[in-house]
Amino acid sequence: MYIGDSTFLCVFVSIVLFCFGTVFGSAINCMASRIVAGESWIKGKSHCEYCGHELGFFDLFPVLSYVFLGGRCRYCHTHISIRYVLVEIFCGLSFVLLFLNNKTLDARLLEYLILTVILFGLSLVDLDSYIIPDGFIIAGIINWLVFGLFMADKKSYYLNGLIGGFAIGGFILGMSLLMDRIMKKESLGGGDIKLLFMVCLYTGPFKGLLLLFLSCLIGLFFVVLLKERKIAFGPSISIATYFVLLYGDRLLSWYLSLF
Ligand SMILES: [Zn+2]
Predict the structure, then answer these.
(1) pLDDT 10s per residue in the chain (259 long)?
(2) Interval between CA 75 and ligand 1 midpoint (Å)
(3) In whole angstroms, what is the distance from residue 238 CA to residue 219 CA?
(4) How many angstroms is it from 15 CA to the middle of ligand 1?
(5) Max Cα separation, the chain?
(6) How far is the CA of 79 from the centre of ligand 1 (A)?
(7) Which of 17, 74, 95, 163 is the most buried (most CB within 10 A)?
(8) So what's the pLDDT on residue 197?
(9) Sign of torsion over alpha carbons 92, 95, 98, 103
(10) 107-129 and 190-226 helices cross at what angle (nearest 10)?
(11) Measured in angstroms, how far is the CA atom of residue 124 from the centroid of ligand 1?
């Protein structure tokens, strides 16, 4: 449903999506830190990381709780990492941007919102542990499979996705095996290759190439910026994916119009 004609509706939906985004950002952040800590990621009440005190109702509002408590735990007054609130805000903003891109409420938007939450989750875990758990990859593949059923052009959706996933994923797998042999050490983690396969299901082969190029560019940028030789590649792939979800179609048609 296109609602771009009504400014009021667009603003209203943006505000609602921002709130949803912060809630999901908060939840995925909590889940990611539980995975990194090796705790059960579904069961158990939320608790303060430092004093272990169970969090009450008023401690659980994304962004607002942080602001009103001055960025401290209500019980032990330890400073809570700003990362939590940043992830919540960024997740909210990325929800809004995805909507404003087409100003349309449809299955594709919901599909991309869920993918965005998955990308946030795996990036956070990868940043802390250099591991991308298979659960995130599987969730992404299931999301892609399920939403295909709601698309008008099912056949090209699945075909394009599979070609993208296997072509880009296979290419990278081949490249990294070759590099491993030359450099005699692991060049690219298995999780990164699986992640590239998963996200290229969404983009197809051409936008997949763009995604791969952007991922490397962003990765290189982080290496230079952080002055570290080993970085988690998952966040770079995730940012590139998000960019391609937003602008991939426009960039591709602009590029093709050059010929
Ligand atoms: Zn505490």
Answers:
(1) 888 788 888 899 999 999 999 999 988 988 898 888 887 766 667 778 788 788 887 777 888 888 888 888 888 888 888 888 999 999 999 999 999 998 889 999 999 999 999 999 999 999 999 999 999 999 999 999 999 999 989 999 999 999 999 999 999 999 888 888 888 777 778 899 999 999 999 999 999 999 999 999 999 999 889 887 778 899 999 999 999 999 998 988 888 888 8
(2) 5
(3) 11
(4) 31
(5) 64
(6) 9
(7) 95
(8) 96
(9) negative
(10) 70
(11) 22
What spacing in Å lies between the alpha carbon of 248 and ligand 1's midpoint?
Answer: 43
CA 54 / ligand 1 centre spacing (Å): 9
Q: Give the pLDDT of residue 43.
A: 66
Q: Return the domain boundaries, the chain.
A: 1-105, 135-259
Q: How far apart are CA 126 and CA 233, in angstroms?
A: 8
> What confidence score (pLDDT) does residue 42 get?
67
Q: What share of the chain is helix, strand, coil (3-state, %, to 5)?
A: 75, 0, 25
Joined tokens for residue 145? 């499979």
* Helical spans, DSSP H, in the chain: 7-37, 64-68, 82-102, 107-129, 134-148, 154-183, 190-226, 234-256
Cβ 107 vs Cβ 147: under 8 Å: yes
For 35, 72, 122, 239, 256, the CA distances from 253, given in Å and listed in that order, are 40, 48, 30, 21, 5
Spacing, Cα 31 to ligand 1 middle (Å): 18
| CA 124/CA 146 separation, integer angstroms | 25
What spacing in Å lies between the alpha carbon of 81 and ligand 1's midpoint? Answer: 12
- For the record, the structure tokens of 58 come out as 């008023």
Whole-number Å distance, alpha carbon 117 to ligand 1 midpoint, is: 26
Ligand 1: distance of its center to the CA of 25 in Å? 21
